[in-house]
Write a structure and sequence with these properties.
Keywords: Transferase. With 211 residues, the protein is an alpha+beta fold. Helix content is 57%, strand content 8%. Helix 4 crosses helix 7. Bound molecules: glutathione sulfonic acid (GTS).
Amino acid sequence: MVVKVHGSPYASAPRRVLACLIEKDIEFEIVPVDLFKGEHKNPEFLNLQPFGVVPVVQDGDYTLYESRAIIRYYAEKYKSQGNDLLGKTVEERGLVEQWLEVEGQNYHPPIYNLVAQLVFFPKMGIPVDQKIIEESEEKLGKVLDVYEERLSKSKYLAGDFFSLADLTHLPFTHYLVTDVGKEFMIRDRKHVSAWWDDIANRPSWKKVLQL
Ligand SMILES: N[C@@H](CCC(=O)N[C@@H](CS(=O)(=O)O)C(=O)NCC(=O)O)C(=O)O
């Protein structure tokens, strides 16, 4: 059964799912949802995702939303297919889950604010708030300092293996080093910089960027 991914391949949370499906060699089709036309607020879409955001996946009669839940589901369901993304032991899995939560709870809020203020809002004609930009950059810097310390001892966030914990960082960090124009936040941190070069050059991510 081909997995249907409702969303835009240019949107970050759908890209998180697409990168995981490619890593796991899972066949998918994208069902485009045009955010600029507000298609994610149509009743038909809201029936799939009541919060009106992308992505949603439909896998036969199974429907799932929240990108981080979706990648956990497919990494587990297809554990023995494609690249392992969950670690080999319960201890490794614990660290994968820890850094998935760190990304969602500590990394995402400030980086999302920077992307919203510096990429989304200008496109939507919404005025930017310099104070939010400055506060978010400071918060993200402190989070990245923790990452720098971790990555000085470990090639990847959960250990010596690439996992969902690293993959989940790809979409918004890609924005940070491109459209947001704050690549220095990565490059000024030696181990974070090496980690980013490693994960951003994975074939799966390059394929996502070509969609
Ligand atoms: N927690 C959700 C967030 C999804 C989300 O915010 N999606 C954005 C697109 S993107 O930020 O991921 O690029 C969206 O649909 N935004 C539309 C809107 O907020 O109206 C997830 O991870 O699936």
